[in-house]
Amino acid sequence: MHSLLARQIELCTGPDGTLDQERFYALVSSAYDDDARARHRLERSITLMSEEMAELNAQIALEARQTLTRYILESRDALITLDDDNCIALMNGPAAHAFGIENPRTVMGLPIDRFLDPKELREGQVSNFSGRHSAGHDVPFSATFSVGRVDGSVFRIIALRDETERRAREAALEVAKQTAEHANEAKSSFLAMMSHELRTPLNALLGSAELMARTKLDETQANYVRMFNEAGRLMMAMVNDVLDYAKIEAGQLEIEQHPTSLRQMAREIETLWGPHAETKGLTLTIDAAGLDQDMVIGDPTRLRQIVFNLVSNAVKFTVTGGVTIRLRSKTEARKCHVIIEVIDTGVGIPADRQTSIFKAFIQADSTITRRFGGTGLGLAIAKSLAQQMQGDLTVTSQPGQGSTFQFEAHFEASDEQELVIYEANGPNEIARPLQVLAVDDNDLNRQILAAMLDLWPVETSWATNGVEALEAMALRAFDVVLMDVQMPVMDGLTATQRVRAGSGPNRDTPIIALTANARQEDRTQCMAAGMTDFVTKPISAESLANALIRATHAPEAAHADAGTQPYLHALA
Fold it and tell me: Where are its TM segments located (predicted)?
């Protein structure tokens, strides 16, 4: 029994145990009335709370819609919202501007496909497409498409970006890039042409000086010839430096990979610079005691160029004492750590200039250029070459005590043996008579070449272009052909290709390129055409003799592919 009912019965029961029914019914009726009133008050409270919650939710939804609308309208980004029918619900100012619309209210309710294809939109992804401007032209856009909910309602929003300016900037950058590339190509072509044009007269000048030095001269005349020769070779070195630096700047200088003898490289440098050091009263020595690996895989031409530049500077800037080329290496698991030091007792370099000397056209002291000459490019080129070999070139120096330039890099060890190179120590090494065909269109070059060939037992036939050369080679066999590359009527490359493709008596005859073109790509073209050696103008009697000896004494080397025989290099 409910406790309230039991209480009411207890109140309505007399001492004799009888129930006062009238009183009981009155109490029960009152209790029900109280309960009804309480229920009514509760229901009213719930109703009021529900109404307040509904108003609050409506307020929140309104504020959310207003916030979203305000964000869209105030955003600097181009934004458009769509309804369920892909019609424009809202478009902000930047979006209207992108489509050339003055008042965005005028397009509300219009289908979006009047301005863009909704099929191009991908939810959550960036889309790139062309929209239609009010003026009738297309506008490039990138856009993101998102779907969300506000107040339970789905809304779809497009964020647009006009790509016109960006694409214009990209197009301008591409034009600038192409312009720069064309300028670099034009500069490279110009420098290559100038190199060729300078080498041709230098060939006549230096060749004449060398031939004159072989005649009987008094002391004054011999001194003039010596100065003439040194000035010409200095000019040639400058031409080479400028050409190499231009290639480095343009990123066109490639490092090749061939078996390379470190000792042979040092001996070549010693042979080239030893006599000059001796005339200055200097010693030039090689210290290879620390070399545990002679043959490595590298670029022999560029490695030789680095050390050549270092030794050239050392001899140039040293007045008393000497220069040492020290070779060291440490080989582990076929990896060879090579260190080459060029040590001199020269003028030295101040500490505050030891970094800047590796920059182009910079020297340690402006008086050095006036005193010793040079372009200031040699060390910049050597540093760049070292870095392209994944190595480095550094210097330690004390003014007045000398300098040590250190090149170091890692190479792969090679199992190949040092290649024996046939080189002339004098003109008499060409012992047997040779039948030579010389091809050159320049009269001065032919005169210099004829005078040099007259130093040896050589019978020379002449041609002035590729057509004449082919006619001469069709008639008889020659021991060697000396072929200029750039000639009228037919160039040397075409003539060589036709000889190799034919079946005439000179199909396998060594053909040596004598050319004023000094780039690696020029050498590659010559070898690809079928030439067997490459000598760069200006030509010396020694380099010509060496080329003839290589062609006639080492046919297996002369006919080998240039890519596998790095020691068949141009001896300019």
Answer: none
